[in-house]
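Researcher: Structure prediction, please.
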Amino acid sequence: MNNSISLLPKEVHKLMQTGEIRLIDVREKDEFAYTSVTGSDSIPMSEFGNHLGNLSKDQKLAFICRSGARSGRVVMYLRSNGFPNVYNVTGGIIRWSNEVDPSVKKY
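Model: Predicted structure follows.
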C-alpha cells in the first residue's frame, strides 16, 4: 500500500478480496440503493459524524462515492483527525464500473 490518499478501483478490489481493506460508500441512501459495489458498507456523508466512533484508526479504510469528490473530502477530514489508513477510490463508482465491475450502474 502506498502513502497516497488515493487508490485505484482495481487496487481496492484486490485488497477487499484478501480482507485487507474495508470499502465504505459515502453516497446518500437512495444512491446506494440504486447501485453499489458488492461488499461495501454504506455511511452517507450527511450522516458521517454519527458513525465516526465506529471507525478504527488501525483498520485500512477506502471510501467511494459517484466520482471521487465526496469521498475525497471524507478522506481529508479523517486524515486531519488522526486516521492514517484511509484512502479515496479514484474515480468513484464510475471508474469502478469501467475497470472492475460493469454491473455497477453509472449515473
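Model: The first helix runs from residue 9 to 17.
Researcher: Thanks, that helps.
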